[in-house]
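S1.2 Input.
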Amino acid sequence: MIKIKYKYKVAVLVLVVLTASLACSVFSSSLFEGQHTWYDLSAPENDVSCYKCHKNIRAEFDETPSTPLPPGSGVPHKDKSCEYCHRSEPGVTYANGSGKYSEPGEEAHAASVPLCQQCHEHESKDLAAADESHKPLNRGGGSGSAAESNEACVLCHTGFDKSIDFTRPLYVEYEIKNVSGTWLVHNFNLGPSSTATVNLTPPGERHTWKNASAVNCFDCHSDIKNALKNGGHVPSSGKTLSGTAVSGHKGRRHNFSRTSTGVSVEDCKPCHRPSLSDFGAGYNHLEARLDYHAATTEHCYDCHYNGTATAFNETGSGCVECHNILRTPGNHTEILNSTFSQNFCGYKIDKVCVGCHLPGPGTSVPFSDRHFTIYTEPNATIL
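S1.3 Output.
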């Protein structure tokens, strides 16, 4: 055992304390170095290094993603500065300048979350259009918070992980009765709610972008695809002109493959993106609802009631036979008028049409006094 005299103990202790103090002094000096040097925030550019904290954003711009992006995708804002988006919102005063000439921020100090519509006003208006199927996603509509207003854009076009709940009635039910020789719709009711949840982890990050060509509708609407495969969603039809499914109407008349491998987004376009389908090219279909950004909401009566003889097929002959079917006196007109008199929305009217014209694979639904129960997607069952 080694003994150290008291005075040496004190000397060792002092040496330890001095060593520790010197180490802390060096660390503190390094930690707070430059603390009295301020960045110049003068507009339009400033010398704040955003990437000091946001290295992950720099990586999104500069690095190849670990998972390849879909074709037609990339980082379109890569050549823009951070300030271009995050310090340019109209009506927002940001901190500006340096030293005694600096101006404090008001609505925002350093940065704000930009609204997509700042630059993409046209697309934003289309997304809020009356017939846009995704209008409910555009919750802010440009008037709410940036998170709400950008939600629809982010869900479809970026690499954000997303979880979406689709809530619809499990089924609808109603009765069709012949009352004194007139066919009427009675007792239309919505069944209990059913929710389908879609969880997606697409490649890319918040600053990566998918062009429309890289957006797959079935990523979110897999339940619709399953319904189509099983004979649901829209009636199949063998209706043709002169015995042939006329080019431009093949999809419109619901004549597409419903096999497990045959259903594709192309089958959706004639009804939901008519301007991009063969239906929309070379035809004067004034009844097509073209007020939309991503997909239009159409209903059975858009063509079968609103359609007129001004719509022509490729041979130049009128298409009155199909387009006027709901205007022809008889049971169809009576049923439709019954829904109109009860202020049915297009969704309810569609279900009434489907009740008779979507019997399901290999079954038959007689048209008579009866109660209909129609299960919604992804089912294709009618009782």
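S1.4 Remarks. The beta strands are 73-74, 162-169, 171-179, 182-190, 193-200, 209-210, 370-375.
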